[in-house]
TrEMBL record:
Residues 1-21 form the signal peptide. Keywords: Signal. This is DUF4424 domain-containing protein. It comes from the Bacteria.
């Protein structure tokens, strides 16, 4: 949950999308896919917002991205799009985040998607979850799919999985949560498998 709605923060300033001003919008669901390769991870997050008011809102969003000594490089590719409106959303790059605006018609559900590709030179990936608590309520529903190719071996996954499925060329780690108020970020560590 990486949406920063300042003052409502979803993931600490480097966790989930945060809105830049308190808004009467509910962040109630997310679906996250993390595809791991040896030195690059692709993250695709689909986020669901509910505008229960009768008025349309234009909401500024700050979407933080983890940059630290294990993830030192800002993503080389980023895409933001409205799934409900089927169009690209322009964004600007910040030091450790991107910023964009969401148009939310009254009494509607808005679905948007952020995808990014980040270099992972140290066999480590982190996705921010902890900002969810700054909204003051749990996610109603969340799904997490993590794909690890067969040439890599999982060393650590901070998220408890509901199902692990081996598809031959990759393994899928799946988790479904309801009433989810995460206490820690998703951290994944891996290494090359021995031949």
């Amino acid at each position: 949950m990486k949406i920063l709605f300042a003052l409502l923060c979803i993931g600490g300033i480097f966790s989930k999308p945060f809105m830049l001003a308190a808004q009467p919008v509910d962040f109630f669901r997310e679906n996250i896919e993390i595809d791991i390769s040896d030195t690059i991870c692709t993250v695709t997050g689909t986020y669901y917002f509910r505008n229960p008011s009768s008025r349309s809102l234009n909401i500024p969003v700050l979407y933080p991205i983890v940059i630290n000594n294990r993830l030192p490089i800002f993503p080389e590719y980023i895409s933001v799009k409205s799934v409900s409106g089927n169009k690209e959303i322009p964004f600007s790059r910040q030091k450790q985040a991107i910023r964009f605006n969401l148009s939310c018609p009254g009494q509607s559900i808005i679905i948007f998607q952020v995808s990014y590709r980040q270099r992972t030179p140290f066999g480590y990936m982190e996705y921010i979850l902890t900002t969810t608590k700054n909204w003051g309520r749990a996610l109603e529903y969340a799904e997490y799919n993590i794909r690890l190719p067969a040439n890599l071996r999982l060393q650590h996954l901070s998220l408890k999985t509901d199902r692990i499925t081996n598809f031959g060329d990759f393994t899928l780690y799946y988790t479904k949560k309801t009433s989810f108020l995460p206490a820690k970020n998703i951290i994944i560590k891996w290494e090359r498998s021995e031949p």
